[in-house]
Specification:
Length: 283
């Protein structure tokens, strides 16, 4: 079974749209999401465009602020400070990566944690690991929703997550652990990776290497979640970290690229923005 992130993302965005309509009636204005784009990287431009489009679709006020890649760290921090203080803004997202002269950690920490719709702020990350109320990072949240939608039992299952980044691998491992999976985190220094990945009932792959995971690395009947977004070196087309054609007959469930985790990330961003807005009015 191919798990469509596109379909579930549509459902989530429809739900957000209805909740926004109710919120506008109640609070007199829609949520306002501000996305900051530094530089002209085509992939970042396309991600930001997609986020803005989704925001408008669900009824948010959407603002994109573009800055040249010559902007200084101080100027960017000052901009974030102004947005933090602006009570009409509910969500702030700085598109990553940033130019190398800007310290990303500093920038992420500068965003008001109550407006941190990405869930990357250190206080949000700490709350996630302490099982306290927090904004869940969008991609890991989307992955859990995909598993739930497909009716895949998580509790008691062996999950292997390949990749240990702060934005995907580590938080999705924590969310799977919180749902009582037994989680193994694999990485570039893992020995005999196929032996490890073949143990997985749920295999999440987030490494950024085109079609890296092949059938010999997948347990028959597994659920395979492909987070990777890569360009196929031969065709130039989008492809995942999993060799989809090679693995699809072996896995019971598999996500495609494109159309799997990607749209879920954006849908969860919309949900997070609405939640930040509601938290402000309802706390
Ligand atoms: P990242 O920060 O570059 O981390 C990559 C991880 O993969 C690292 O932990 C690295 O191990 C591990 N790795 C690299 N080569 C490996 C190998 N040969 N065997 C085992 N592990 C290996 O990447 P990321 O930000 O998590 O992103 C991963 C992929 O997901 C990228 O393609 C990215 O574009 C995509 N992504 C998609 C979405 C979405 O919404 N669909 C969102 C975010 C990211 P070490 O820690 O040992 O270096």
């Amino acid at each position: 079974m191919i798990i469509s992130g596109t379909d579930l993302a549509k459902e989530i965005k429809n739900d957000v749209k209805h909740r926004v309509e109710v919120a506008v009636e109640k609070y007199g204005r829609p949520p306002h999401l501000v996305v900051i784009l530094v530089g002209e990287d085509p992939a970042s431009q396309s991600y930001v465009k997609g986020k803005g489009k989704d925001a408008v679709e669900v009824g948010f006020k959407s603002t994109t602020i573009t800055k040249p890649d010559t902007i200084s760290e101080e100027e960017l921090l000052n901009l974030i400070d102004d947005l933090n203080k602006d009570n009409s803004i509910d969500g702030i997202l700085v598109q990553l990566p940033l130019p190398s002269h800007i310290n990303e950690d500093k920038v992420i920490a500068a965003i008001d944690r109550n407006k941190d719709v990405d869930g990357f702020h250190p206080a949000n990350v700490a709350s996630l690991w302490l099982k306290q109320k927090c904004v869940y990072p969008c991609t890991p949240k989307g992955i859990i929703k995909l598993l739930d939608k497909a009716g895949i039992e998580i509790q008691g299952k062996k999950a292997v997550v390949i990749g240990r980044s702060n934005i995907v691998g580590l938080p999705v491992s924590k969310l799977l652990l919180d749902r009582n999976a037994t989680v193994t985190i694999a990485h570039s220094k893992t020995q005999n990776l196929p032996d490890v990945s073949k143990e997985a009932d749920i295999l999440v792959v987030a490494i950024g290497k085109p079609r890296f995971v092949t059938a010999d690395m997948v347990k028959p009947g597994a659920a395979v979640i492909d987070v990777g977004v890569n360009r196929d070196p031969e065709t130039g087309k989008l492809c995942g970290d999993v060799d989809f054609e090679n693995c699809k007959d072996l896995a019971d469930y598999i996500t495609p690229v494109p159309g799997g985790v990607g749209p879920m990330t954006r849908a969860c961003l919309m949900e997070n923005t609405l939640e930040c807005f509601l938290n402000k009015f309802e706390q």
